[in-house]
Specification:
The complex is a heterodimer of chains A (about 280) and B (about 300). Chain A has about 280 residues and is mostly helical. Chain A has one domain. Chain A is built from twelve helices and no strands. Chain B folds into two domains: about 220 residues, Rossmann fold (3-Layer(aba) Sandwich); about 70 residues, 2-Layer Sandwich (Alpha-Beta Plaits). Chain B contains eleven helices and 14 strands. In chain B, the strands form three sheets. A six-stranded mixed beta sheet of chain B has the order 6-7-8-3-9-10, with helices on both faces. Chain B has a four-stranded antiparallel beta sheet with strand order 2-1-4-5. In chain B, a hairpin with a 2-residue loop joins strand 9 and strand 10. In chain B, helix 9 packs across helix 10. The longest helix of chain B has 16 residues. The radius of gyration of chain B is 24 Å and the shape is elongated. The two termini of chain B are about 35 Å apart. The C terminus of chain B is likely disordered.
């Protein structure tokens, strides 16, 4: 038993101090939601069990880089097993699993707890809130896409015979890695958040996100084999891979122009962002 | 200056009108917003917070338009919703500090004020525990704290005693009263329980079916009435008979005899004399105070007649 009534009596002796300090307003509020959401995407500031899935997926995403560097170190020569332009196609399923697991945490949690009315009655607009959540998930995805590339880049420089030569040659890849990571992260995060923001139910959201990534790949494959070569454009995984190849001007086996796939990724991302903003404009609070 | 002003405020849902051309002006202080369930209380509060868009009409709070100037306004408003709104996997400290920052307070100030505010609402060591294990009373205190932490100029409390047991209800009402009186923060508190409003509020706004029924100081409704309640230790019936016999309007009501105070204070003498002649003890002689319940009943009757 607590002793609440006694305590309630004793609090009356402490005076109230009003707040005369600075009020940082909207930008600070948006940054607060962004930071808190980014942390929660990795389970930071939550109980230990919330960290398990994001950490496991982060480790798996690093595996191709680790294996590549391990072989290169063992054979004492520079290897071409994992190329930067191929990286996202190796791990795209893991990337999809990450947004499937964490987008509901970012978008569904406040709906589930009915906290939205507290946010929207504060120094933050509905649109701000939506963009802060999206920004946080894109940033989390950038961690997953950029960290392995950075490991690969630095690792290659160390395992090669002439580090300077390697850096000079591969420096040209840095903007491409950045651009393709932004593209892949943007697509995964916006598609996932567009779905997750529709429901407070975590299971529905996670299932929906996995369904759209895996389902679109399956349907894309079938259409590609039956209807024609443009059928592959349905598959989100293939769109990401193709767009990445276009950014790297890399060789590929797609029968569709990769600039078209790049345009499709931009288009799908834009539509998803629109759906997210519309959802938060209308969501009851 | 009015803290809240609405003009022609209307909110229609498909098949229902929640607010019907409401004109309202609320002055600073502790204001009770009363009405039956579904009268439009929550809808009004949500419109004042910019959470809902009115169908037509306008509303302003602290001189800011509730819809178009909400970004500025929201720095100075605290809102305690009726429904659950706490993330139970967070501690009260984390949650309230987070909410303070979303209200625009810098991180260090948010932490400092969180500690103070949680102490003011009566949460101590338990504020470092996950809210999962909190009692309803503790959860309500956290809900109140997050509405208070950024030192708002006005707080909108939607049914703050919802779900509380009598002791918790008393605590919450004391807290609300204290925030209004000692902290000097204006409060608009909705409730469907009139005795709560009577206890806490200075001013009362009664709405029914989305329309304004009454807006006035609580004291006007709870003033003295022209009725004396008389209690004697024996012979209630005989007392009633005697008083009626001496020309007073008297009626028995349970163990009491109600006497109308008409034409001066002669009734007091007649009652004293009657009791003396009957040789019974006069236990109580009290002018009855009107309660808000009477007013509410009148309001309902009026509506029935009108319908």
């Amino acid at each position: 038993m607590t002793t609440e009534p006694e305590r309630a009596g004793s609090i009356y002796d402490l005076g109230y101090r009003s707040y005369g300090g600075t009020r940082l307003g909207r930008r600070h509020a948006v940054r607060t939601v962004y930071v808190e959401s980014l942390r929660s995407a990795f389970g930071l500031g939550r109980r230990a069990s919330s960290k398990v899935i994001p950490v496991i997926l982060l480790v798996i995403v690093l595996l191709p880089a680790a294996v590549h560097l391990g072989i290169a170190a063992a054979s004492r020569q520079q290897m071409d097993i994992v190329k930067p332009e191929d990286y996202s196609s190796f791990v795209e399923v893991i990337l999809a699993l990450f947004v499937a697991a964490q987008a509901p945490e970012l978008a569904g949690r406040d709906q589930r707890n009915r906290t939205l009315s507290l946010y929207f009655s504060r120094a933050i607009e509905r649109r701000d809130y939506a963009l802060a959540k999206l920004g946080a998930l894109v940033s989390a995805m950038l961690v997953l896409t950029l960290v392995p590339q950075a490991v690969l880049f630095v690792g290659n420089a160390f395992t090669t015979n002439d580090a300077l030569e390697y850096l000079r040659e591969d420096a040209a890849n840095v903007p491409r890695v950045l651009a393709s990571s932004v593209l892949v992260s943007g697509l995964c995060a916006s598609v996932a958040l567009a779905i997750a923001s529709r429901t407070p139910r975590r299971a529905y959201a996670t299932g929906g996100i996995i369904a759209i990534f895996v389902g679109s790949a399956a349907i894309g494959g079938i259409l590609d084999a039956t209807v024609g070569r443009y059928g592959i454009m349905v598959s989100l995984f293939d769109l990401m891979t193709g767009a990445t190849y276009w950014i790297f001007s890399a060789e590929h086996e797609y029968e569709v122009a990769t600039e078209l796939m790049f345009a499709a990724v931009v288009g799908v991302t834009a539509i998803s962002v629109g759906l997210i903003l519309r959802r938060y404009e209308r969501i009851p609070a | 200056m009015a803290i809240v002003a609405t003009s022609g405020l209307t909110k229609r849902y498909p098949g229902a009108t929640a607010l019907d051309s409401l004109d309202l002006e609320i002055k600073p202080g502790i204001v009770g917003l009363v009405g039956a369930n579904g009268a439009g209380k929550s809808t009004l509060l949500k419109i004042l917070l910019g959470l809902l868009e009115p169908t037509s009409g306008s509303a302003s709070v602290l001189g800011f338009d509730a819809l178009n100037e909400r970004a500025e306004l929201h720095q100075f408003v605290g809102y305690m919703p009726e429904h659950d709104c706490l993330p139970l996997d967070m501690t009260a400290t984390e949650f309230v500090a987070h909410m303070a920052q979303v209200s625009g307070l810098p991180r260090s100030a948010a932490r400092e004020r969180t500690a103070e505010t949680l102490r003011h609402v009566g949460l101590f060591e338990e504020r470092y525990r996950e809210m999962r294990g909190y009692s309803t009373g503790m959860k309500q205190r956290v809900k109140l704290a997050q509405a208070l932490v950024h030192d708002p100029k006005v707080m909108l409390l939607d049914e703050p005693t919802n779900g509380l047991d009598p002791a918790g209800r008393d605590d919450m009402l004391d807290l609300v009263r204290r925030i209004g009186v000692d902290f000097g923060i204006s409060i608009i508190m909705s409730s469907h329980l009139l005795n709560e409003i009577e206890r806490v509020c200075d001013h009362l706004v009664l709405i029914d079916a989305g329309r304004l029924v009454q807006s006035a100081a609580v004291a006007t409704f709870t003033g003295e009435t022209g009725v004396l309640a008389v209690e004697v230790d024996d012979g209630v019936d005989e007392l009633e008979r005697r008083l009626t016999g001496s020309g007073l309007r008297a009626a028995r009501q349970g163990r009491l005899v109600m006497v109308a105070l008409e034409g001066g204070t002669g009734a007091y003498d007649l009652i004293r004399d009657a009791a003396a002649e009957m040789e019974v003890g006069l236990v109580k002689l009290q002018q009855r105070r009107q309660s808000l319940e009477d007013l509410f009943r009148q309001g309902e009757d009026g509506n029935d007649n009108g319908a």
